Amino acid sequence: MRNDPRQYDELAGQWWDPRGHFVSLSWIAKARAAQVPRAPRPGAVLVDVACGGGLLHPHLEGKGYTHIGVDLSQEGPKVARSHGVDHVVRGDINRIPLADGCADVVVAGQCLEHVEDPYAVAIECCRILKPGGKFVLDTIADTLLARLFIITVSENLPLPGMAPKGCHDHKLFVNPDRLARACETAGVPMKLRGLFPHISDFLPWFLRLRPDVRMRPVRATNVLYQAVGTKVA
Ligand SMILES: C[S@@+](CC[C@H](N)C(=O)[O-])C[C@H]1O[C@@H](n2cnc3c(N)ncnc32)[C@H](O)[C@@H]1O
User: Fold this and answer.
1) Of 3.40.50.150, 3.30.300.160, 3.90.460.10, 3.80.10.10, which CATH number belongs to 7-230?
2) SS3 sequence, the chain?
């Protein structure tokens, strides 16, 4: 069965493994955090929708947020808390168990492509965002090229950092235009751009000569893309 959420519990020991399946998520998390502004006030809240093992946390250091995660899995929240996430709510992002307008920032990284209705989940994210707050997301486009890279190649290459086999279902990949329209109807116009790894970083990373692979912005949104917007006041 593809996209089985139990996989995240079975692989929970790999969240922070620098050679494990999830390491590329930490590279994408760094690019996500770069879009998060400094906290506008003491005690500002950042909600990390489907936070997994909390890979975003170190990249938020010094920004001044209380980092609240939401995730369905059993083990992810424990791992996230042990890596500094302030509080993790166990819950379904289809109905985020948080109040309207509670968040100064909402981030949704690499999760919309794992739910049946990503457009409704994006609207849920906009619901919990304060007017003037920032929404940052990244996900995978509903294209053949994305299917080729993310499933055919990444899930089958026997190399560190590749996605676990079966963790994606291409039928759930997310249409960029439809996603942007959904957010706009919920009061958050989004700017989209693609993200692509610096290919030249892979070999030095593999040889342990550099700590990570940098993600760079690209114009094409047809594989991995990021969207950023501010909720209209
Ligand atoms: C690919 S991981 C991304 C984790 C994290 N955002 C990151 O980028 O490192 C997908 C996460 O979504 C969570 N997830 C999947 N479906 C969910 C749902 N309906 N409600 C809450 N969490 C869900 C999984 O448990 C997993 O932690």
Assistant:
1) 3.40.50.150
2) CCCCCCHHHHCHHHCCCCCCCCHHHHHHHHHHHCCCCCCCCCCCEEEEECCCCCCCHHHHCCCCCEEEEEECCCHHHHHHHHCCCCEEEECCHHHCCCCCCCEEEEEEECCHHHCCCHHHHHHHHHHHEEEEEEEEEEEEECCHHHHHHHHHHCCCCCCCCCCCCCCCCHHHCECHHHHHHHHHHCCCCEEEEEEEECHHHHHHHHCCCCCCCCEEEECCCCCEEEEEEECCC
